[in-house]
Amino acid sequence: MKKIQYLAAGVLSTAVLFADAVEGLAQRRVNTHFLPYSSISFGVGSSHYYGDLAGYRQFIKATYIMPRWNVGIGYTRQFTPKFAARATFTWARISGDDYTFNKNNIQENLPQYVRNLHFRNDLKEFAITGIYNLVPDGRTSEERAKLTPYLFGGIALVAHSPEARTPYVEGSDDSQRWVKLQPLHTEGQGQPGYEKPYSLVTLAVPVGIGVRYKLNESFNLAFELGYRYTFTDYLDDVGGNYAAANVLTGLAATMADRRVEVNAARLKSHPDRYQALVNLYQSATPEEQAKIGNELQGNVVRGADGKLNDGYLLTSFQIHYIIPSKIKCPPIR
């Protein structure tokens, strides 16, 4: 936690220094009459995951299934009436579950339902973004627009570590315990013939829209909607094929392949997951039965969704505090 706090402080400090350096250039070249100002912000909102367990092909469904939370702080420097730069730190949780996402349409989403994987991931995002106001500010912070829609985009560094629950075993102390997945190398990563382990730090591209309302001279209220496309396919620990049976052992093997578990892997109260497959098998044609059998044992594909990288969407309700400008005292005569 201390490392995260130090890194957040470093990012915000760098942004302040960058803002001071750019401010002079903005004043000379863009608008010599505008008085730049700064603000700090705090926001809370929802987080929405898109990836192998909640595919882009069902974007709307993925948006409202299993939303989670985010909180964030930021520092913004308004250089001109239309342009600002911002540094933010956001802590966001995302989550996905094959059972929850596909339980109402098993036949159409059979591979994902059978796969029975799930995850949660706490993302720590450090972002530098540019903001473009569609309605320009006035000459000073007090004269800023009453209602300002804006666009933003930039680059972010994201630290993450996906987790999942161990299988439910009645009476076991190890039952339904959250464990980190990357050290288990669930797709054989690091073994001969397999890819190297994926990184727990990745880049992301945040883009989005927002609207800001001037509450009074010192405060704004704002709402933002921003999407992050990441440079990893492993926010959910799922991206490739199942490892061969002799590659993984112990807990790694248990967490890597959960197709034959009776319970929904994340929810111990849903043993009907497997019974639904049994019912589907019994009423199926021989060809359909062969397909179900292949998904349970023969299919080697673990990831899905066309090798697209994972992404997430953040909403944020924010309050901004406008830092007062320095007051210059008149010279003493």
TrEMBL record:
Keywords in alphabetical order: Signal
Would the keyword RNA-binding be found if you checked this record's keyword annotation?
A: no
What are the DUF6089 domain coordinates in residue numbering?
42-159, 199-237
Q: Which residues form the signal peptide?
A: 1-21
The protein's superkingdom reads Bacteria
Task: Return the InterPro entries for the record.
Answer: DUF6089, OMP/PagP_B-barrel
Protein's name according to its UniProt entry: Outer membrane beta-barrel protein
| Native species | Spirosoma rhododendri
Question: What taxonomic ancestry is recorded?
Answer: Bacteria, Pseudomonadati, Bacteroidota, Cytophagia, Cytophagales
